[in-house]
Amino acid sequence: MSEIRNRIDFVYIFDVQDGNPNGDPDAGNLPRVDAETGMGLVTDVCLKRKVRNYVQIAKSGQLGNDILVKSKEISGEEVFINGEIRKTYEDLSIKLEKGKAPADKVPAGRTAMCKRFFDVRTFGAVLSTGPNAGQVRGAVQMTFARSKDMIVSEEHALTVCAARDEEKPYELQVGIQGRKATVPYGLYICHGFISANLARQTGFSEEDLALFFEALKNMFDVDRSAARGLMSAQKLIVFKHDSVLGNAPANKLFDLVKVEKICDGAPRSFSDYSVIIDKENVPSNVTVEELI
């Protein structure tokens, strides 16, 4: 495995058409929105879930690329984190004392969990429950994605034409039975940070980085749902510093990516926007690359 020796910042741009990119359970599963500005939101947790799902499918059964926080709908199995920690200590032949690992063995358990699970070394994890393998701060951090412009949440009535229960009146089981919320179109921008220092601690490697970027490129195509409509990765812009600590503030680099609406009226496709990178003002000790 190749060690990461450079700080990396990235801009990830994706869109949604006629779908709900991230429902808010506190608001009847309506698309998440900034109440003050009307801008749409997609949480970092939602995006990390899609990365996990992609790696779980693409690297199924591959040593070192297992996923700890599995989705049952993808894996078909129920996973309990404490059970996985316990299994790791069993593989290390470390005996638990009253259900917990001895304090001097916790670092070994944490290291082994990082080696086993892609998402642990990438995003980190709280492993201090149950048998206790400590805590891991992940090498990759992501912000909420925020839409470039205000979104409009539309609700659509859903009807059912087939009854289920023969013991109930047919008329009560057909007709309008629910509602579905969608965003006609929204372009979302997420910012990410990759720490070479934390990567060294968790074992997050150049190969892991390549897999992470592969997931960002392809994860919407393996996670289709009628509720999410058409979601697509549109841009992945990577700023690579020539040092571990970095050579420029991330916010200044992100400001070099200009996303502007170029249509009249409400945007309805990615072609209604322009994305321009001000490469002339990129610091000489930072390289920029468009992976999408």
Automatic annotation (TrEMBL):
Q: Which domain of life is it from?
A: Bacteria
Pfam family, any one = Cas_Cas7
Sorted alphabetically, the Gene Ontology BP terms of this entry are: maintenance of CRISPR repeat elements
Protein name, please? CRISPR-associated protein cas7/csd2, subtype I-c/dvulg
| Protein's organism | Phocaeicola massiliensis B84634 = Timone 84634 = DSM 17679 = JCM 13223
